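Deviation from plan, reported transparently: fe (ii) ion complex.
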Amino acid sequence: MKLTRRQLLKYGLRGTVLVTAGTAYANTWSGQIELTRPTLTIPSLPRQFHGLRIGHLSDLHASLIVSRDHIASAAQLLMREKPDLIVLTGDFISGATKTISGDMGAFDASYLERCVEGLSALSAPLGIYAVLGNHDFWSGPRAVEAICQRFREQLGVVWLRNESRALEKAGKKIHLLGVDDYWEASSSLHAAKQDVLPDEVSILLSHNPDINEEIDLGKTKIDLVLSGHTHGGQVVLPFVGQPFLPSGFGQKYRAGLVRDGARQTYVTRGVGHLLAPLRLNCPPEVTLLTLV
Ligand SMILES: [Fe+2]
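Because the crystal trials were delayed, the predicted structure below was used instead.
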């Protein structure tokens, strides 16, 4: 059978779409989770904290399409590194999801259980600290309450809901701050910052990196922001990228390290995925940050 040029193009295009979709599906498998090890320099970091290793997980999105085993793989990958401290920056479940055509899905307690079970291996000498993401809030107050309670009881998580905790070593302090998701009216950087002196090192956990807008507007001194939310784009097409990021800053906070003057923001691509089990040019990420 002889194919016309048009048929060749048609079959070629279909083949490319199928191979791309297959690759994107395979990229969501647990074996594709990438451990990244950024080293961040904070000039005013007290000597006692040099070399502090922070394990960072975000956007677990436990759901029908993100399994307990996938989350457990991420937790095990991190625990092999023996971090001093672990931070979790929200979107623990995919419950109710807001889309342009309205709300989709609802809070399912079994997704919370798979997330808690998946993360059950986590422990760190300086503790596990967490903030909530937009999907946690969108799932309703009952979901927020259940997430906070289960994580506190099962994993010993300390929630930073517009508050801070001091980490002390040999009389020197650094501060961990956390805010509710930036899209929520309950988010308050002002409240989170109130116990921190201007010359002390402050590390802010914020699910959404767009919190940088408020930091700049308030001329608030923050040394490091740790975020997720954008999933690194999740599906990043060759030559096209991912033009639909949920950020008012366009591509700026898509993934990785971003500098705003002296302040640094690290945006992890996250562990899970949303809407479909697809990731392209954007593998799931477990992050181990070292402060120097
Ligand atoms: Fe997310």
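Residues 90 and 133 are 4 Å apart (CA to CA). We consider this an acceptable substitute for the interim report.
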